[in-house]
Structures are given as C-alpha cells and as structure tokens.
Amino acid sequence: MSTVLLLFVKLPSLLPLPGQPQHLANNNGVPWTIVFGLTLLTLLPAILLSMTPMVRLLVVFHFLRQALGTQTAPSNQVLMGLGLMMTWFLMQPVLNAVDHQAVEPFRQGQISGMEAIQRGVEPPKQFMLKYAREKDLALFASAALAERPKDPNSLPLRVIVPAYMLSELKAGFVIGAVLFLPFLLVDLVVASITTSIGMFQLPPVVVSTPLKILLFVMVDGWNLLAGSLLRSF
User: SS3 helix, strand, coil % of the chain, rounded to 5?
Assistant: First the structure.
C-alpha cells in the first residue's frame, strides 16, 4: 500500500485547481499535497480492509479463537499484526505491479499524475476480480449500472470492491465453519462423558478447552492454518 500512497500523495502537486492561475497552483502545491495525504491516511484502514485479503484472514482468526474457547488469547493486537503481515506477503506481487506500471514512470516524468492513477488501479482491480464471485458482481452491477457491461474488466471499482468484500466474507465463513468442526466434536465428546459420569458440578468447557488447545498444538495448528490460508489465494 505504500506505493499507492506515494502515488496519490504526489498527484495533487501536479494538478492546478479549476480556474486558478498556473503560478498560484504551483505555489500552493505543497499545502494541497499535505491535505490529500492526510485524507488518504484517514481512508487507508478502510482501503486496507476492503481491497486486500485481510477481511478473510480476520474472519478466520476470529472463528479459530471462538472454536478454541480462549476468548482473548491470542489478543486482537496479535491477530491484527499477523493479519497485516500475511496481507503484506500476499499483496506483494500486486504492489510490485503498481510500482512498475505507475509509480516508477510517474517518478521519471514519463506519465502524468492522472494516467499514473489509472495505471495504478489496474493491478488491485485484477486481483479483486480474480476472487470476486460472479454472483456478487452481478448483484452490484445490476443495482449500479444502467447497461450491462461487456466483461468484468469494464466494471467500475464501486461495483468490484463491495462484491470482492462479500466474496471474501463468504470464503472466510466457509473456512471458519470447516475449522470449527473438529473442536465442536471435542466439545460434544467431553460433554457426553462428563454428563454420563455425573459431573454436573463441573462445566464441560473447563475440561474441553485445555484438550482443544493441546490438540491444536500437537498438530501444529498455526502452521497448518497459515498454509491453508496462503493456498486459498
């Protein structure tokens, strides 16, 4: 995301305001750059959540913590940090493409700021189209567009981004449901055993939680989970 941020921050210094003399536009370039940069920093968390795999990762991590029954372990900060690093790893090819197609030509003065934005949007757009379901794309396209597009590449970002988020939520819930099943089986077995031997004073969760954690550690669960998430992209 740093390359996209650099691209957007440098753009306003090249674009004069409508009706403003060129010399005034050049003098006011730095303040407008600061305004656009601060605005983009405010929107950066929303961009990170809506245009990257982070939605799927956080949903799966939440399901894992609920399935283990640990409630607050790992903490939200730990899971967010892991999600950010894995997102950075997964988005590295996209960021390299943005840097090669838009940022570097813009730095060298080969293209204008507006053309750099148009080129820089294409790699994230293709990434989102790859994982957005046709059903979700059709939903937002039918609600937002008067004419049917010729192909998915002609869809605007206002259609692709929410469709991509719905698809990622769907994928995250599917992975979370599959992840929940073995731990649910442990809960059922422990509950049936404690009930059959008359241990009504001891809640089953007190016994099942350590067993689930032990099972997760024995199978090297974090490695398996990270590998499965990486292979899903």
Answer: 80, 0, 20
Number of domains forming the structure of the chain: 1
| Distance from C-alpha of 183 to C-alpha of 208, rounded to nearest angstrom | 9
**C-alpha to C-alpha distances, 76 to 38, 68, 81, 94, nearest whole angstrom:** 26, 15, 8, 27
Report whether 110 contacts 16 (CB < 8 A). Answer: no
Q: Does this model's pTM top 0.90?
A: no
The pLDDT tens digits of the residues spanning 173-189 come to: 998 888 888 888 887 88
CA proximity to 170, closest of 232, 78, 83: 232
Rg (CA), the chain: 24
Residue 4: phi and psi, rounded to 5, are: -65, -40
